[in-house]
Every structure is written in C-alpha cells, then in structure tokens.
Specification:
CATH class of the largest domain: Alpha Beta
Largest sheet: 9 strands, mixed
CATH architecture of the largest domain: 3-Layer(aba) Sandwich
Strand content: 5-15%
Number of domains: 2
Structural class: alpha/beta
CATH topology of the largest domain: Alkaline Phosphatase, subunit A
Shape: globular
Oligomer: single chain
CATH superfamily of the largest domain: Alkaline Phosphatase, subunit A
Length: 541
C-alpha cells in the first residue's frame, strides 16, 4: 500500500533542490569525514535517506530530463547537453500544475536554460541566461582576452542568488485553500571551475546557503507542510578510474547520487534509511505516489515508497562516442551487481567492491550474460518511436554548448560498428582535458602542441582538430587554422564555430570569396549572430 499523505485542508507542497555534480559519498550523512555537511544532512530529520540512488546519465540536461520526465535517456533521446527536450512532453511540473499546484523553477546553470525545454509545466522558469550576450557567436569566445577559455562565459549564477529568488517567490505565493506549490531550485556551485577552495570548499559553501534557506522555510511554515527533497543529477569522479570530472565513464563516482526526502508534518512514518537501489527517474513517481496523484502512462520509473522497489537500474554515457567516435557505455544494476556493456565488458559486486576495482566479468560469466541479456531486452523494449532532432536547438545554443565541451560531435548512426573502448582511449581523453586547461590558462603554444599530440594518435578526432584550429586563429597562424577548419567543416558542415572561424582565417589570408562563403554558411546556421553578420557585411561592401 502506498505511504502517501492525506491532508483535508491543503495538499503537501514540494520543494526539490538539485545540487549539480554532488557525489553522495562526500556528504557526512553518507559517511564522509573530511568535512561536515550538517545542513544538507538535516533534510533527513523526519525524513528518509536513500543510500543507493543512481543517475541515468552523468550530464546535467539529460539527467534532469530523466528526473522530470521519468524516462530512460535512450527513450527520450536526450542523451547529451545539446539536445532540446521536445514540446509536449509530460513532466513532474506539468502533472502537478494540472492538479492545481503553482510551479516555479530557479536555475543555476545555462545547461538548464529555458530554451532547452525543461521549462514545460512551470508557471515561472527563472533562468537569467541570455546566450547572445555571452555565447561564442558574439566573438568573445574566439578572440582576445579569455576568448578561447572554455569557461569564459557566464554559464552560471551563484547558489545564494538562486535560493534568494526561490525564497522571495515563496514569500509572495502563500498557500491558498486547496492549493500547493512546486518549487525547483538548481545549484551549480560544485561544477568546475571552482571559485572556492576546491570541490569540498564549494560543497561547504553550498551546505551553508542551504542551511539559511532551510531556516527561512521553517520560519515561514513551508518546511512543516512540504515534501523537501535534496538530490543531485550526477557525481564527480575526482580522479577515480582516471576521470577527473564526469560524463566519460559510468562508474559509481559519477552515477551514485544522494537522495534525501524530508516528509511534512503528519506524514505516515517512513524508515530513516532506504537501501534499495533506484534511479533518478524514480523520484517523480515517488513524489506523485506520496501525494496520491496517479503517475501518467509515460512515466517509466517506479515509486520508491512501494516495497520491492524498481527492477534493474539503467545508466549510460554516450559522451565518448558522440565526442570522439569511441564506444558508448551502458550499465545495468541488479541488486548489488552492476554490468557495464563495453567492448571489454565489466561486472562488479558493489556491496563488496563499491569503488569498482575488481572486474568479475571473467570470474562470473553466467551472471554477466544474464545482465547483458536484460540490458539488451530493456533497450529493445523502450526503443524511441522517432529519432531525436538535435536541430531543435538553436545554433546559438549549439555553439555555446560546443564551446563548453559538451556538444555531440558525431552521429550515433555508427554506434553499432566496432569502436575503441573508452577505457583504452583514456590517455587521449586526458590529453584533451589538459589541452582545454591550457586554453583556460591562455598557454596557447602548449595547448596547440597538446592538440597536435592528440591528432597524431587519432587523426579523426574532429573536436581536437577544431580546437587546434581555434588556437591557431588566436596565434594569428591563419594558414594552419585554415587547414584545420577545412577538414572540420568537411566532417561537420553544420558546426557554427568551424564555419565562422574558417571564414575569419580566409579573410585574414585575403581569400575574400572563400571567406564570404563560409561566413554566409555560419550566419545561416546562426541567424541571430551579430558578430557573424558584421564580418559578412564587411566583406560584401
């Protein structure tokens, strides 16, 4: 039987806080001892801590899409940060709004900007990011100062500002008879680059501002009558398995996320800890189950309030495939065991080996075959009815996300072909990350040398070649830049940055006709790009 809450006067409100890039095992409530996180931990008071929750994909937009739509990423086909959620999808916000809830979201990162489509169902979607002012199409990402800095763009706002905006909205929207509110707050402070003293420094700051936010909720009465949820979209590897950040592998360092739910006053008793495995896609059905609202047919997740919990927990990363042409990674967890489908498959017992150091694939082939079969059955049974259309996002968004290192660079059509295992290409990927860091530090010669080193290993690495061309432009080596970009636009003709910078290189080399051709192509891809239009008009005079 469901463990929901019946209130005669008003339904419980829902306050959902997503702390981007927070791995579960860095919270003291999950056993971390280097710092304390008392305010985040305190959400478990009169609440439940879920110890085995998994992200469906370790990237911001697709993970939040699975959270809100309760669908598999391969089903929704939102598997990268550069894929727009199509109109008309059913979200947790749209379901709650249809039941009379006021809905508001307060966003901390451009990756959840309203243009990406997750604003559906929200009465207010507060995401103050304006691509034209700071995106690469303005020219600032390309030339001068911090032009090539992959983070040289206002892609975030401080968590204190996010929570302040949420607090003001709550103050202006007091509970009305028979109505509740749904508030979503997205905090991005833990995402690189760190402003404070490293990852744990950012976490300590986030804990402090959440403490102040919680106190405001208590003082205003929202805490007592709300379902207050803290979770994360994905973790951060912090060097484990050779991965510094997230998105490349599907190990627990980036998949295991916290889920802490505070139950409102009067709620039926729930255990203080729940160890059943689950996924972020199970959160929305759990919320609706608690509120006694039927989950829509499109929701694939299962309520964590029901005994037995969900079946196998699916996760994936296509970043290595889409960015570099290497094999996609998909995993399925069943109880303590987790299978990773890759050219060299992996099997782990997470109860005995939580850091996934001992691959049991060769020792337990029967279990591996069973999980592999279940994974393929799951993929086949939820195949999308129609292909996703990356063209749904604007060229401005495409250029911005590409500049931040998140744009899918290749088609998934070749996913079934034999491809390198991302584990075997880790040195090359780490070189790419090093080259990006060198660009961040404006060490252009070293960055160019590192990109050349990557291309010597893999001449088909389009992303590295594009970034090498951009580095050459900044070094005023226009002939070399032109050679790079001509190859890039052959492989990716709809890449705005490549077309634009090839046009600039041609212009600097006096190749006016070629420059005009490529600038026209760039302006067609991004009709609102003022810098492109100015460059093209200058050539046409």
């Amino acid at each position: 039987m469901s463990a929901g809450l019946c209130l005669a006067a008003e339904p419980a409100s829902v306050i959902l806080i997503s702390i981007d890039t927070l791995r579960a095992d860095h919270l003291s409530a999950y056993g971390y001892r280097r710092i304390r996180t008392p305010n985040i931990d305190s959400f478990a008071q009169q609440g439940t801590l879920f110890s085995n929750l998994e992200s469906q994909v370790p990237l911001t937009l697709p993970s939040h899409t699975s959270l809100f739509t309760s669908t598999y990423p391969f089903q929704s086909q939102i598997e990268e940060n550069a894929e727009r959620v199509p109109p008309g999808v059913v979200t947790l916000a749209s379901v709650l709004r249809s039941h009379g809830y006021k809905t508001a979201a307060f966003i901390g990162s451009v990756f959840l900007e309203s243009e990406m489509g997750l604003d559906q169902g929200f009465d207010l979607y507060d995401s103050p990011f304006h691509f034209e002012a700071f995106s690469p199409i303005s020219g600032s990402m390309f030339f001068g100062g911090a032009g090539r800095n992959r983070y040289g763009v206002r892609d975030r706002r401080d968590g204190a500002l996010v929570l302040g905006a949420a607090r003001r909205w709550l103050a202006a929207n007091t509970i009305q008879q028979g109505a509740g509110v749904f508030v979503f707050a997205h905090l991005f402070d833990l995402h690189k680059p760190y402003i404070r003293a490293g990852y744990d420094g950012e976490l300590a700051y986030t804990d402090r501002i959440l403490g102040a936010f919680k106190q405001a909720l208590i003082q205003s009465g929202w805490w007592q009558r709300s379902l207050a949820i803290v979770l994360s979209d994905h973790g951060e590897s912090l060097g484990e398995h050779g991965e510094d950040s997230h998105g490349y592998f599907v190990y627990e360092s980036t998949l295991r996320v916290p889920l802490i739910i505070h139950w409102p006053d009067g709620a039926p008793g729930r255990p203080a800890r729940d160890d059943q495995p689950g996924g972020l896609m199970d959160v929305a059905p759990t919320v609706l189950d608690f509120l006694h609202i039927a989950a829509p047919p499109s929701f694939e997740g299962r309520s964590l309030l029901n005994a037995g919990g969900p079946p196998g927990v699916y996760s994936e990363s296509l970043y290595a495939h889409d960015g570099f042409g290497w094999a996609p990674l998909r995993s399925l967890r069943d109880g303590a065991y987790k299978y990773i489908d890759a050219p060299r498959p992996e099997l782990y017992n997470l109860a005995a080996d939580p850091r996934e150091q001992t691959n049991l694939y060769g020792k337990d082939p029967a279990r591996a075959r069973t999980l592999s079969g279940e994974l393929r059955k799951l993929l086949a049974s939820h195949a999308p009815k129609q292909p996703a259309s990356p063209a749904n996002i604007s060229p401005a968004t495409r250029a911005l996300l590409s500049s931040l290192g998140y744009l899918s660079g290749r088609s998934r059509a070749a996913a079934g072909a034999a491809m390198p295992d991302p584990k075997d290409r880790l040195p090359e990927y780490r070189l790419y990350e090093r080259a990006q860091a060198l660009l961040y530090d404006r060490r252009l010669e070293d960055a160019a040398a590192t990109f050349r080193q990557i291309l010597a290993r893999d001449p088909r690495n389009t992303l590295a070649r594009r970034d090498l061309g951009g580095t050459y432009v900044e070094q005023h080596l226009y002939g070399k830049a032109r050679e790079c970009f001509e190859r890039v636009v052959t492989a990716a003709p709809d890449d705005y940055m490549a077309q634009f910078e090839l046009g600039i290189a041609d212009k600097k080399l006096g190749l006016t006709h070629d420059a005009l051709e490529h600038l026209q192509a760039a302006c067609k891809l991004a009709p609102g790009a003022e810098q492109c239009r100015k460059e093209m008009e200058g050539l046409e005079k």
